[in-house]
Design a protein that fits this description.
membrane, DUF4220, 689 residues, mainly alpha, two-stranded antiparallel sheet
Length: 689
C-alpha cells in the first residue's frame, strides 16, 4: 500500500500541471455544451453536473496557474525548456477563467459577488503575467504568441467580470432608474397666479395633460412575416425593454399597460405564452451570460477579431522552434490552441444564431437579406422551434406520498442523517409536460378578467382573489368556507378534494395513481388539468415555499400526512390507492373536524374530504369547470404574492410556469407596478372674457 501511495505521489508531482491544464480545458468544453441547455431543462442530474463544472472550472484553472508560478520559481536548470513551454500555457488558463459566453454566473447570487471576481481578475492576471515574464524577456515567436493569447484572455476575463457587475440587482436598478423628476414648478406657477389675482384679473387654472409620447419608429419587421418567429422575437424584445423594470421592482406607466393589453388581447394562447417565453429568455441571458455585451453586431465583430488573433498565435507556434521541448508538452500546447480556436468558433456561431442577433439585424433596415438568411439557418437547426424553457412542471401528491412513505429501517436511517427529504424528492416528485389545454385555460381566464377590469380597484380585486370569484360566478357560494381560510390551508383542502374527486370515477384508460392517459390522447379535459394544477400547487407549497405567500404550509402538510398515515394503518395494511381514497370518502364528516379534534393539530385531511363530498354533488362538467377555475385563481394569487427575486431565480433552473404567469399577468395589467397615470400636467392660466 505504501509503495502504491508513493508511486501515485511521484506521478502527481511529475504530471500535476499537465493534468490540471488539460482538466481545465475539459471543464470549459463541458460548460460550453451544457450551459445552453440549462434554461430549457429541469433535469436535476444535468443541473448538478453543470454546477460541478462551474465551480471546478475556476478552482482548477487557479490551482494550475499557482502551480505554474511555483514551478517557475523553483527554476530548475535541468527543466528550463520544459518550464518555458509550460509558461506558454498560463494565458490559456486566463482565457479559461474568462469562461464561455454562455455562462457567467450559475445563480443570480453570483452576480452580487462581482467584486470578488474583480479581485480575482487582478490577482490572476498578475500571476499569469509573472509566469510570462521569462518568455517576454526574449522576443521570440513563442513569446509573441503567448502575449496575444494573454491579451485575449485578459479581455475575456474582464468581460465576465463586467457582465457579473451589470447583472447585479443594484446595478440593474441604477441602469433603469430615470433621472430625478421634480415636475413643473409649482412655486413659480402659484406666484404668477397670486400676481394675477392681486391685479384683479379673473384668472383660473386650466389643466391639460401631457401629450403621450410618439410611438417609436418600428423597423420593417412586418415584411419578414413570421420566418422562424422573427416577428415574435422582435416584439418580445420590445416588451422586454419596457418591462425589464419589473425585475428590480420599479414602476411602469399606465400607457405601457394599455399598449401591452392591446397586444395580448389580440393574441392566441400559443402566441402569448411564446412571446412571454422569449422575454424570459432575454432576461435569463442578462442574468447569466455575456449576451447583453457581445450578442450584437459589435460583439460578433469582436469575436471575429479574437478568432483571428488566436489563429495568428497558432501559426506562430506552428513555426516556432520546438527542439528540446518534451513531445507531451508540445501536444498539450497544440490541444490548448485548438481548444481555444474551437471555443471561439462556437462562441461566434452561438452569437450568429441567437435571438439577440436577430433583433440587432432587424433594427438595421439595410440588412433584410441577412436577417432572412439567419432566420432560415435557425429554422434548419430548430425545425420545431427553439425551446427557451423546460415546458415541464413538477407534480407532488399528498395521498400518494402517504401511501408510499412506509416506515422502514432504511428510511429511519435516512431521516436520522437528514437525507430523507432528498430521497422523497427523487421518489415522489415527477414532472409532466405542460399541456396546451392548460395554457389556453390560463390565458382565457386572464384575458377575460383583464378585459372586465375598468379601474385600479378592479385590478386590485383580481390580484386579491384566490378562488372566491370562481365560486361566485359558478353559483357555489356555499363553498366559500374553503377559500376564506389561510392560503396554504386552502391549497391543502382543495388538493385533497381534487385528488379524491378525480379518483371517484377513474376511467379505464387512465393510470389511477397518476391520472395520466395511457392512450396517448393529448386533449386534456378540465378534470385532468385540475389534477395537474393541484399537484403543481402542492409542489410549490412544500418544495418551493419561497415562491408562495408566508404561512405554515409545511406544518399543515406534516400534520395532515401524519393523520392520513394513521388512518390508513388503522384500516388495514397494503391499501391500494383507490381503496385508500374510497375509505376516506366513506368517513362521515357531518361534524366539523375542528369541533372534535381542536386546533392543536393543523391537519386538514377530513376537511378536504368534506369538500370532496360537496363537490361530488355537482354535475361532472360543472364540477371540473369550477375546480379548474379555482386552481387558476389560486395560481394567480400565488404569482402576485411571490417576490420578483424568486421569479428571476427560477430562470436558471429550467424556468417555472409560475414565472411565465407572473409576466403574462403583468402584460394583462394585473400587476402592482403601474403607478404613472398621465405624466405631467400642463397647467396654464386662463382668463374670463
Amino acid at each position: 500500500m505504501q509503495i502504491i501511495k508513493e508511486s501515485w505521489k511521484k506521478l502527481w508531482n511529475a504530471e500535476e500541471i499537465r493534468i490540471l491544464v488539460l482538466a481545465s480545458l475539459c471543464l470549459q468544453f463541458g460548460l460550453v455544451f451544457l450551459s445552453p441547455m440549462r434554461k430549457r431543462t429541469a433535469k436535476k442530474l444535468l443541473i448538478l453536473l453543470l454546477w460541478s463544472f462551474y465551480l471546478l472550472a475556476d478552482y482548477v484553472a487557479i490551482l494550475a496557474l499557482g502551480n505554474l508560478l511555483k514551478k517557475q520559481n523553483e527554476g530548475a536548470s535541468a527543466h528550463h525548456n520544459s518550464i518555458d513551454l509550460m509558461a506558454f500555457w498560463a494565458p490559456f488558463l486566463l482565457l479559461h477563467l474568462g469562461g464561455p459566453d454562455t455562462i457567467t454566473s450559475y445563480s443570480i447570487e453570483d452576480n452580487e459577488l462581482w467584486w470578488r471576481h474583480f479581485l480575482g481578475l487582478a490577482f490572476q492576471v498578475a500571476a499569469a503575467f509573472m509566469v510570462l515574464l521569462e518568455l517576454l524577456a526574449v522576443i521570440s515567436r513563442l513569446g509573441i504568441a503567448a502575449s496575444l493569447i494573454f491579451i485575449v484572455g485578459l479581455v475575456k476575463y474582464a468581460e465576465r467580470t463586467w457582465a457579473l457587475r451589470s447583472a447585479s440587482m443594484n446595478q440593474l436598478r441604477d441602469s433603469m432608474v430615470r433621472d430625478p423628476d421634480p415636475g413643473p414648478s409649482y412655486a413659480e406657477f402659484m406666484q404668477e397666479y397670486v400676481w394675477r389675482r392681486e391685479a384683479k384679473e379673473s384668472a383660473y387654472v386650466k389643466r391639460k395633460d401631457e401629450p403621450p409620447p410618439l410611438p417609436p419608429k418600428h423597423s420593417n419587421v412586418e415584411s419578414y412575416g413570421n420566418i422562424y418567429d422573427m416577428r415574435w422575437i422582435y416584439e418580445a424584445y420590445t416588451f422586454f425593454k419596457k418591462f425589464k423594470p419589473l425585475v428590480v421592482d420599479l414602476m411602469l406607466t399606465f400607457k405601457e399597460r394599455k399598449d401591452s393589453q392591446t397586444y395580448f388581447w389580440k393574441c392566441s394562447a400559443f402566441q402569448a405564452f411564446k412571446v412571454v417565453e422569449m422575454e424570459l429568455s432575454f432576461l435569463y441571458d442578462v442574468f447569466h451570460t455575456k449576451a447583453i455585451h457581445i450578442r450584437c453586431l459589435r460583439g460578433c465583430l469582436w469575436r471575429f477579431v479574437c478568432l483571428g488573433v488566436i489563429s495568428f498565435a497558432f501559426m506562430l507556434f506552428l513555426n516556432c522552434e520546438k527542439q528540446g521541448y518534451a513531445s507531451a508538452d508540445i501536444i498539450i500546447s497544440y490541444v490548448l490552441l485548438g481548444g481555444a480556436l474551437f471555443m471561439e468558433l462556437i462562441s461566434l456561431v452561438l452569437i450568429i444564431i441567437s435571438d439577440w442577433m436577430i433583433v440587432a439585424i432587424i433594427q438595421h433596415n439595410k440588412l433584410n437579406k441577412l436577417a432572412i438568411a439567419v432566420a432560415k439557418v435557425m429554422s434548419f437547426i430548430f425545425p420545431m422551434g427553439k425551446p427557451r424553457w423546460s415546458n415541464f412542471i413538477s407534480q407532488y401528491n399528498l395521498l400518494s406520498f402517504c401511501l408510499g412513505d412506509e416506515s422502514t429501517k432504511i428510511r429511519r436511517i435516512m431521516g436520522a442523517v437528514k437525507v430523507k427529504e432528498l430521497w422523497d424528492k427523487f421518489i415522489f416528485i415527477h414532472s409532466v409536460c405542460v399541456p396546451w389545454k392548460l395554457y389556453e385555460l390560463l390565458f382565457d381566464e386572464l384575458k377575460t378578467k383583464s378585459k372586465s377590469a375598468r379601474h385600479t380597484a378592479d385590478f386590485k380585486e383580481l390580484r386579491d382573489c384566490k378562488g372566491e370569484k370562481a365560486l361566485q360566478q359558478e353559483g357555489c357560494n356555499h363553498l366559500r368556507w374553503s377559500t376564506d381560510k389561510e392560503f396554504d390551508e386552502s391549497i391543502l383542502l382543495w388538493h385533497i378534494a381534487t385528488d379524491l374527486c378525480f379518483h371517484t370515477h377513474c376511467g379505464i384508460n387512465e393510470n389511477p395513481e397518476t391520472g395520466h392517459c395511457w392512450n396517448g390522447d393529448s386533449d386534456h379535459s378540465d378534470r385532468e388539468i385540475s389534477l395537474i394544477l393541484s399537484n403543481y400547487m402542492l409542489y410549490l407549497l412544500i418544495m418551493q415555499p419561497s415562491m408562495m405567500p408566508a404561512g405554515i404550509g409545511k406544518i399543515r402538510f406534516q400534520d395532515t400526512c401524519a393523520e392520513a398515515k394513521g388512518f390508513f394503518q388503522a384500516e388495514k395494511k397494503g391499501l391500494t390507492g383507490p381503496e385508500a381514497r374510497e375509505a376516506l370518502l366513506d368517513v362521515e364528516t357531518e361534524v366539523d373536524p375542528i369541533e372534535v379534534k381542536g386546533d392543536r393539530s393543523k391537519s386538514v385531511l377530513f376537511d378536504g374530504c368534506r369538500l370532496a363530498k360537496e363537490l361530488n354533488l355537482l354535475a361532472e362538467d360543472e364540477r371540473w369547470r369550477l375546480v379548474s377555475r379555482v386552481w387558476v385563481e389560486m395560481l394567480g394569487y400565488a404569482v402576485i404574492n411571490c417576490k420578483t427575486y424568486f421569479h428571476a431565480k427560477q430562470l436558471s433552473q429550467g424556468g417555472e410556469l409560475l414565472t411565465h404567469m407572473w409576466l403574462l399577468m403583468a402584460h394583462m395589467g394585473i400587476g402592482e407596478q403601474y403607478r404613472v397615470e398621465a405624466g405631467h400636467a400642463v397647467a396654464t392660466l386662463a382668463f374670463n372674457n
